[in-house]
Every structure is written in structure tokens, then in C-alpha cells.
């Protein structure tokens, strides 16, 4: 008598997930504390699970005081951090020139404020909407402009 054990990867994966889900359900059912911790974690997520947001600096209109107020409001709203993104949107040009010493000082201030508030902080890789690279260039070389 020959037994055929020809099982696909999809079938093995499905069985594994089914067993794992059954185990987790049984684990929670038998341990109400885990269910409470899941609800608590959802209502008050840890820092690494909180959403982040883009922080647009429009047409070089930026200041240390403005960053401080905005970052406190972002923290109070439950957001976990920011990614600073410099853009121009037809607004009047501000007093701070992109990549000037003042611009870098304000970004340094914002990074320190984020550290104090427990927020993550990042800066987009270049000025403008188009990100890095050349949209009209060869796709294999599109990130040559990045560095």
C-alpha cells in the first residue's frame, strides 16, 4: 500500500496558521488577563506602535517656536513622531533659506524637542515633492542624484 504525502507549501502554511490561530484563541479564552492587555494596548499603544506623520515646512516658513508648539500638539494627539518634508506650494516665501545654517539650527532644535517629547524624528531626503532621483532619467540610474 502506497501513501501519497504530496502536500503543497500553501497547504502546510494554511495548516500552520490554523493551528496557531486555534492555540492563540484558546490561550486568550483561558486567560482573560491577555484579553484585557490586548484592549489596553490598543487604547494606549506603546511608542513604537503609534502612527507617524509628515510635517510639511511650506516655502521656508519655519521657526523654533512654531516647531515646539506643533510638536507638543502632535504628542498630545497621540502621534508617535514626524518626518519633516520641505515643500513649496505657492505660498509666500519665508525668511529661512533651505539648507542655510538657520534652517539646520531649526531642524536640530526640532530633533531635540522630539527627543524630549519621546517622538521619533526624521527628515526627508531632499527638498521638494519629487523625492530623490530623476523622473525623466533612465530607471536603472534614477537614484544617482541622491548622493
Q: Could you say which structural class the secondary elements and strand pairing correspond to?
A: alpha/beta
Radius of gyration: 24 Å
How many structural domains does the protein architecture include?
Answer: 2
Largest β sheet strand count, sense and barrel closure: 3 strands, parallel
End-to-end Cα distance, whole Å, is 66 Å
> How many distinct beta strands?
3
Helix content: 40-55%
Shape: elongated
Average of the residue pLDDT scores: 78
Strand content: 5-15%
Number of helices: 4
Which oligomeric form is depicted? single chain
Q: Strand-and-helix sequence, N→C?
A: HHEHEHE
Present the secondary structure layout.
Elements: H1 9-30, H2 32-43, E1 52-58, H3 64-76, E2 81-87, H4 101-117, E3 120-123
Parallel strand pairs: 1-2, 2-3
Helix pairs in contact: 1-2, 3-4
Overview of this structure, please?
The chain is an alpha/beta fold and 147 residues long. It has two domains: 9-43, no CATH class; 47-123, no CATH class. Helices cover 44% and strands 12% of the residues. The protein has a three-stranded parallel beta sheet with strand order 1-2-3, covered by helices on one side. Helix 1 (9-30) packs across helix 2 (32-43) and helix 3 (64-76) packs parallel to helix 4. It is elongated, with a radius of gyration of 24 Å. The model has no long low-confidence stretch (mean pLDDT 78).
Amino acid at each position: 500500500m502506497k501513501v501519497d504525502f504530496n502536500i503543497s507549501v500553501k497547504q502546510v502554511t494554511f495548516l500552520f496558521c490554523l493551528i496557531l490561530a486555534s492555540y492563540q484563541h484558546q490561550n486568550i479564552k483561558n486567560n482573560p488577563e491577555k484579553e484585557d492587555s490586548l484592549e489596553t494596548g490598543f487604547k494606549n499603544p506603546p511608542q513604537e506602535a503609534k502612527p507617524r506623520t509628515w510635517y510639511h515646512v511650506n516655502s521656508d516658513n519655519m521657526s523654533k517656536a512654531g516647531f515646539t508648539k506643533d510638536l507638543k500638539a502632535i504628542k498630545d494627539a497621540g502621534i508617535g513622531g514626524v518626518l519633516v518634508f520641505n515643500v513649496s506650494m505657492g505660498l509666500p516665501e519665508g525668511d529661512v533659506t533651505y539648507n542655510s545654517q538657520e534652517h539646520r539650527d531649526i531642524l536640530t532644535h526640532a530633533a531635540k524637542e522630539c527627543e524630549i517629547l519621546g517622538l521619533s524624528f526624521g527628515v526627508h531626503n531632499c527638498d521638494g515633492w519629487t523625492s530623490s532621483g530623476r523622473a525623466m532619467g533612465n530607471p536603472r540610474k534614477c537614484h544617482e542624484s541622491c548622493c
